[in-house]
C-alpha cells in the first residue's frame, strides 16, 4: 500500500462518497477485482468498455448447466431444467428488448466479426456502380479487415471499395451532417454503410436513426456494429429501420471474454428468399429439424442465419447478464450513466485544464455513452495506464499511441471510482509549465 498523497488538485473525495450513498447503482451484483496498487482494497474498474465484470450470479448459473450435463448426458437436450434444444430462445426476448427489436429479429450466436461476415454475405451485394462500403476511419481494425476482405471476396479492390470517413481537420469526431452529406452526394456508389454505433476510440455515439435514414434514402444497406453501444445506450433498431446490426457481449453485457454475440436483422428482410445466406442445420425450422432432410426450410426469422447448434455453456453467462438488464432496465441505467459520466467529465475538466491531456469524446451527453477518451500529449498511453493500475489501483484502457479510455459503467462503477481515476491521473501526469 502506498502512503496517501496530498491531492494535487481541488477534487473532493468526500463528495464522491456522498454521491455514492445517494446513487448506489448495482455494484453488489458484481465481482470487483482487487486493486493491484494504491491505497484502496478494490480496483477502480473503468475498463468495462473492454471487458465487463463478472456478475455474481454467473458462476452458479453456469454450474447448474454443467450439472445437467453430468446428470443427464444426451437427455439434457430435452430434460435439463433449461433444455438445451430451445436454450437459445431464452436469450432472444431479453436481447430483443435491449436493442429495441422484435424477438423474430434477434438472435444470440457466434462472435461479432463472424456475425458481421455472415450478415455481409446477405447484405453486401455490390453491383454495377454501387460497390462501396462506407466505414469510419477510426473503425475498429477487425471491422476494417472484415470489409476489406469482403471487397476482395467479390473481386474488388479494397482500397477503392472501402471509403473511410474522417472527422474534419482539427476535429476528433465525425459530424452527422458530414456522414449524411457524403451519402447524399455519393450514395449511388454505396452498397453498404457499416459504422460503429458508439466509436470504440472516441466514445462518440453516432446519430443512428439519422445516418440510417440517409443511407437507406441513398439506396444503400445500413448495418451497425454495436459492440460499444449495446448495454451502454438505449437502442430502437426496429423503429430506426436499421437493416442489420451485430454486437458482442463481453463489454457492457458482462458475459465474459469472447462471449457469444448478438445479431439483428430487420423484419422486412426476414423470409426473403432472394437473400443469399450461409446455412447449417440450425438454419432450418425447429419443428422439422430432426426429420434430417437434405434441403433446409429456413424460418421467416433471424434464426435462419444460425448455422450450428448453440454452445450451451457459452450461452449461460449471456442469459444471466441479459436477465440483469431486463430486471434493471436500460432507461434507469442510462439515467445513472448520464449522472456518472457527467461527474467524471467535470473531474477530468479540472485535471486536464493545466495538463497535456484532452478529452476527445463529444461534450454533448446525447452524443456519447459512458466512455470518456483522453488524448495524452506526451508519452505512451500503455505506460500511463500501467502506472494508473500499479500505483493507484485504477484500471483504464490504453489505445496506442495516445488514447486512454475511462468508462464508468452504470451497473457497477461508483462516483468514488471516477474520483480515483481523476485523482490518479492528476498524480501521474505532471502539470504543464
Ligand atoms: C467495435 C468493435 N468491433 C469488433 C470487435 C471485434 O470483436 P470480435 O473479436 O468479438 O469479433 C471489437 C472488439 O473489441 C470492437 O470493439
Hetero groups: pyridoxal-5'-phosphate
Largest sheet: 7 strands, mixed
Helix content: 25-40%
Number of strands: 13
Number of helices: 13
How many whole angstroms does the radius of gyration measure? Answer: 23 Å
Following the backbone from N to C, one meets helices and strands in this order, namely HEHHHEHEHHEHEHEEEHHEEHEEEH
Instruction: State the secondary-structure class.
Output: alpha/beta
Query: What is the topology, as strand order, of the major beta sheet?
Result: 2-8-7-6-5-3-4
Envelope shape: globular
Euclidean distance between termini CA atoms: 30 Å
Beta content comes to: 5-15%
Q: Whole-number average pLDDT?
A: 96
Question: Unreliable segments (pLDDT under 50, ≥5 consecutive)?
Answer: 1-6
What does this structure look like?
This protein is of the alpha/beta class and 433 residues long. 36% of the residues lie in helices and 12% in strands. The protein contains 13 helices and 13 strands. The strands form 3 sheets. A 7-stranded mixed β-sheet has the order 2-8-7-6-5-3-4, with helices on both faces. It has a 4-stranded antiparallel β-sheet with strand order 9-10-13-12, covered by helices on one side. The longest helix has 23 residues, at 330-352. Pyridoxal-5'-phosphate (PLP) binds at residues 111-113, 140, 142-143, 196, 200, 225, 227-228, 248. It comes from Micromonospora globbae.
Amino acid at each position: 500500500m502506498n502512503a496517501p498523497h496530498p491531492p494535487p488538485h481541488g477534487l473532493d473525495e468526500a463528495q464522491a462518497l456522498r454521491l455514492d450513498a445517494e446513487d448506489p447503482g448495482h455494484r453488489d451484483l458484481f465481482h470487483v477485482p482487487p486493486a493491484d496498487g494504491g491505497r484502496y482494497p478494490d480496483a477502480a474498474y473503468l475498463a468495462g468498455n473492454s471487458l465487463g465484470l463478472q456478475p455474481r450470479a454467473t458462476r452458479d448459473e453456469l454450474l447448474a448447466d454443467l450439472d445437467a450435463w453430468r446428470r443427464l448426458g444426451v437427455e439434457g437436450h430435452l430434460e435439463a431444467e433449461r433444455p438445451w434444444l430451445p436454450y437459445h430462445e431464452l436469450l432472444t426476448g431479453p436481447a430483443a428488448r435491449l436493442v429495441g427489436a422484435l424477438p423474430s429479429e434477434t438472435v444470440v450466436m457466434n462472435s461479432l466479426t463472424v456475425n458481421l461476415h455472415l450478415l455481409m454475405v446477405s447484405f453486401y451485394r455490390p453491383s454495377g456502380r454501387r460497390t462501396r462500403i462506407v466505414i469510419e476511419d477510426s473503425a475498429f481494425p477487425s471491422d476494417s479487415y472484415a470489409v476489406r476482405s469482403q471487397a476482395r471476396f467479390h473481386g474488388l479492390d479494397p482500397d477503392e471499395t472501402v471509403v473511410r470517413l474522417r472527422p474534419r481537420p482539427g476535429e476528433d469526431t465525425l459530424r452527422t451532417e458530414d456522414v449524411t452529406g457524403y451519402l447524399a452526394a455519393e450514395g449511388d456508389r454505396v452498397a453498404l454503410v457499416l459504422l460503429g454505433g458508439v466509436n470504440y476510440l472516441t466514445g462518440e455515439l453516432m446519430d443512428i436513426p439519422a445516418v440510417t435514414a440517409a443511407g437507406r434514402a441513398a439506396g444503400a444497406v445500413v448495418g451497425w456494429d454495436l459492440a460499444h453501444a449495446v448495454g451502454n445506450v438505449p437502442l430502437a433498431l426496429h423503429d430506426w429501420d436499421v437493416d442489420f446490426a451485430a454486437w458482442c457481449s463481453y463489454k457492457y453485457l458482462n458475459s465474459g471474454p469472447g462471449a457469444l454475440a448478438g445479431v439483428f436483422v430487420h423484419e422486412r428482410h426476414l423470409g426473403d428468399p432472394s437473400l443469399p445466406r450461409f446455412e447449417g442445420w440450425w438454419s432450418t425450422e425447429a419443428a422439422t429439424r430432426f426429420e434430417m432432410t437434405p434441403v433446409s426450410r429456413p424460418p421467416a426469422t433471424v434464426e435462419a442465419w444460425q448455422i450450428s447448434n448453440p454452445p450451451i455453456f457459452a450461452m449461460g453467462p449471456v442469459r444471466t447478464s441479459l436477465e440483469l438488464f431486463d430486471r434493471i432496465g436500460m432507461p434507469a441505467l442510462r439515467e445513472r450513466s448520464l449522472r456518472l459520466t457527467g461527474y467524471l467529465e467535470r473531474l477530468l475538466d479540472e485535471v486536464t485544464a493545466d495538463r497535456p491531456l484532452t478529452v476527445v469524446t463529444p461534450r454533448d451527453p446525447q452524443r456519447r455513452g459512458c466512455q470518456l477518451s483522453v488524448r495524452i500529449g506526451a508519452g505512451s498511453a500503455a505506460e500511463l495506464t500501467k502506472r494508473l493500475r500499479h500505483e493507484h489501483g485504477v484500471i483504464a484502457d490504453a489505445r496506442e499511441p495516445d488514447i486512454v479510455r475511462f468508462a464508468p459503467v452504470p451497473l457497477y462503477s461508483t462516483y468514488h471510482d471516477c474520483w480515483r481515476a481523476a485523482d490518479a491521473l492528476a498524480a501521474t501526469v505532471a502539470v504543464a509549465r
